[in-house]
Amino acid sequence: MSDAPPELPSDPDSRQSTSATKAGTWGAAFLTTFTTVFLAELGDKTQLAALLLSAQSGRPGLVFLGASLALICSSLVGVLLGRWLSRVLPPQQLERIAGILMVALGLWLGRQSVLNLAPLPSDLPLG
Predict the structure, then answer these.
(1) What is the pTM (predicted TM-score) of this model?
(2) Mind listing the pLDDT tens digit for each residue in 27-67?
(3) Closest CA to 49 of 83, 24, 26, 74
């Protein structure tokens, strides 16, 4: 083994294409993440909470700062957990688990909604 630095391609076009690929990958990941999170948060309870807190407090700047910091911290937890899970599980298994959790959460929330709309009579034996 040699301590010499790895050789770079002598062709300037290949170096440019490598940096363009990295830039394209970075830009695509950033744009996809921004768009996905932005659209997911529109009309979300977080946005409604920020709206109400801003209206009640009369301090929209502080509400924006607090909500932004909370979203950053929440996203950081998701990113770190996702990074750890990607090292432990293969991508297909991670996607399958995420899909199962989303379906289970949807079913549970649907069940809660139905139970709140039509509460069971209290005289029924539920074992």
Answers:
(1) 0.56
(2) 888 999 999 888 888 888 888 999 999 999 999 999 999 99
(3) 74
Print burial letters for 63-99: b (CB count within 10 Å at least 16), e (below 16): beeebeeeeeeeeeeeeeeeeeeeeeeeeeeeeeeee
For 124, counting Cβ atoms within 10 Å of its Cβ (0-12 exposed, 13-18 middle, 19+ buried), the class is: exposed
Distance (Å) of CA 23 to CA 6, 27, 76: 22, 6, 23
8 A C-beta contact, residue 86 and residue 94: yes
Q: DSSP class of residue 26?
A: H
For 89, which DSSP code? Answer: S
